[in-house]
Amino acid sequence: MPEEIRLPIAGMTCAVCAGRVEQALLKAPGVSAAAVNLAGESARITAEPGSLPAVMAAVEKAGYQVPLQSLTLTVGGMSCATCAGRVERALAAVPGVLAATVNLATESAQVSFVAQDSQESALVAAVTRAGYQASLPTPDTAPVRHHSDTWPLLAALLLSLPLALPMLGQPFGYHLMLPPLWQFLLATPVQFWLGARFYRAGWHALRAGTGNMDLLVSLGTSAAWGLSVFLWWRHGEQVHHLYFEASAVVITLVLLGKWLESRAKRQTTAAIRALQALRPEVVHLEVDGAVRDMALAVAVVGQVVQVRSGERIPLDGEVLEGSSGVDESLMTGESLPVAKQPGDAVTGGAINGEGLLRIRITATGNETVLAHIIRLVEDAQAAKAPIQRLVDRVAAVFVPVVLGIAALTLAGWVWAGGGWETALINAVAVLVIACPCALGLATPAAIMAGTGVGARYGILIKDAEALETARRLTLVAFDKTGTLTRGKPEVAAVLAVDETDPVLRLAASLQQSSTHPLAQAMLKAAAAETLPPVSGLQTLAGRGLRGEVVGRTLCLGSSRYLQELGVSMAALQQPSEALAAEGKTLSWLAELGATPRLLGLIACGDLLKESATTAIDRLRAQGIRTVLVSGDHPGAVQVVASQLGMDEVRANVLPADKAALVTALKQGGAVVAMVGDGINDAPALAAADVGIAMGTGTDVAMHAAGITLMRGDPSLVAAAIDLSRATVRKIRQNLFWAFFYNVVGIPLAAFGLLSPVVAGAAMALSSVSVVSNALLLQRWRPKD
Fold first, then answer.
1. Active-site amino acid positions
2. How would you write 337-354 as a 3-class SS string?
3. How many angstroms separate the CA atoms of 603 and 571, rounded?
4. What DSSP string describes 522-554?
5. What is the rounded distance in angstroms from the CA atom of residue 11 to the CA atom of residue 225?
6. Model confidence over 574-609: pLDDT tens digits?
7. What's the CA gap between 457 and 464, in Å, rounded?
8. Dihedral pair phi/psi, residue 119, rounded to 5°
9. Under 8 Å between Cβ of 599 and 507
10. Backbone phi, then psi, for 483, in 5-degree steps?
11. Contact between 563 and 583 (Cβ < 8 Å)
């Protein structure tokens, strides 16, 4: 069965690089799908198990690298060679593992794997599932990854400044350039040592039959350096002007641009890093009656952990003992602590407010809610938006076109009598200013920033297509139960014939031992009351129940049951009909005796969520029509729609018919979103242009949806649409600037109006400005 692997890719510099890696991956044996993210410097592939070596070979053949990491695990519980083999096979089966060797004598395992987050935990979990114990290395021996482009930049700056500073005096008639020998000695290390990366990447591009930014930079700066050497050789020390400063300063500016770009790109992944930081490294595990501090990866489902005040809950679980307010804001966006008590579910990564909690683990590793959230965000950031496919097509022909323009510039200036020196410098300027990097970063940088900020506020975007499509929505269809309503019955009204009769208290007393949803709603409403005991309780299926409470014989049930007992309901007939028309379920309370008499009624219903009205109002303000979809009878559905001010109603809709309804709503060109939370909503979510699932609902619904709202707050639907519009706006701005730099800069360079140094600065600025503009999305906030 194919598995999904995320690969870090090192060495990509522009959209052409990303395209070449993607093509190489798709040609690799066993790979069925591949998507490369330039901004995230990663690839997501779907491949057959065992395909990783071939995939890595394909990447390296294309001229790039897959960073690897090695780790030594301590493995306990092995007693023979069979055990060692079993552990080895378990480790080798983990996606991303290249090789695993187990040493029985030292009780250790050496694993080589693709460098990615959470891989260490996955390895420990694999050994645990195989029936053995594993522990991670101590912080002193843990592998450390080093990524630094700072020293080459500093060296290039130090070598280039003596060449660049004298240029500042030329406009004022001061000729302060260094002697040719000194210029040569300063520029050559920049060109061939610090600029070697451009030659390597450019050579790999040529071998693959394509071109990239590195090829343009290496050709342009080499031409400037070569021309300078030629002029120096031809004219000697009397040469008036050389172009060593152009080659050195251009390389330095490109290195500076890449350094700034990498810093900015790291900020686009801040959301994932913040989510990953929610995992504590140590858990307080109860083992043999004692509490021991153990590595997080060691914990397994069913074990009990203790969480102290102010600590993060390590894994998903169920509270066994203790009560506290839990802060889940970094996962749901909800700022207020959520009260937790025995029997309640808790989510790994949340902060325990006060008091000690004993929690039984219900999910570990990739099965936790936090891991699911991180996976969704990573998938969205790795996916390509439809608009990116157009950019990829442009980038594929960009470098050959630029090379053609540079050749025409060279020939044109020579033909016009400008001389080889002027012609070559203008051709160099064309090569240097052309920037496929900005084109490649425009879309993924904005998507990474948008999905990241959305996750911060509880809006999880599953793929880039949903993010791009949401801005065009014209109609949103809402499932009623659990989406706009709370999803469980609550007491909506209590009516008494005689105000002295405590109707709710008496009804709740009759149902103290019942687990029926209506009984639970009444008990919840009467939680502040002291309920008297009940005796002689009798339950009549489908009708109601009767019993003795404080010496009174009471019955609670349907109108049909009371009619059979001869109880007149005329006193509350009119208000009961109004409540029934609203879809409320009525429970009648009567006292039995020589003459049965009605005491009152309790109306239960699925009440609207507090934010439901706000949700519809915000969508209306965005110019989006709303439809309420429900299986309830038309009267009840119409009442809810009228309360919320919705545009259309579809009642008596069976679960199997919801998908067909969504398809019908799309007729006539409407762009439709479906919002739901249940298993029966999944087909409709998949049929909609954008499926939006409530995070409080089922896993099936969340898998079928393109967007998940972690808080189950319907007002976040409008926020998700607003985020989509803001993100696409940034994409368009980025693409405008990326094309603007090239469309304006290349002709200016070709006509001799830009020096190579200015062209290099403009190229560096283009990439940095595109990523920086995308980062402005981090200031987005949902409207209060």
1. 479
2. CEEECCCCEECCCCEECC
3. 15
4. HHHHTTTS-PPPEEEEEEETTTEEEEEETTEEE
5. 25
6. 999 888 877 788 899 999 888 889 999 999 887 888
7. 18
8. -65, -35
9. no
10. -105, -60
11. no
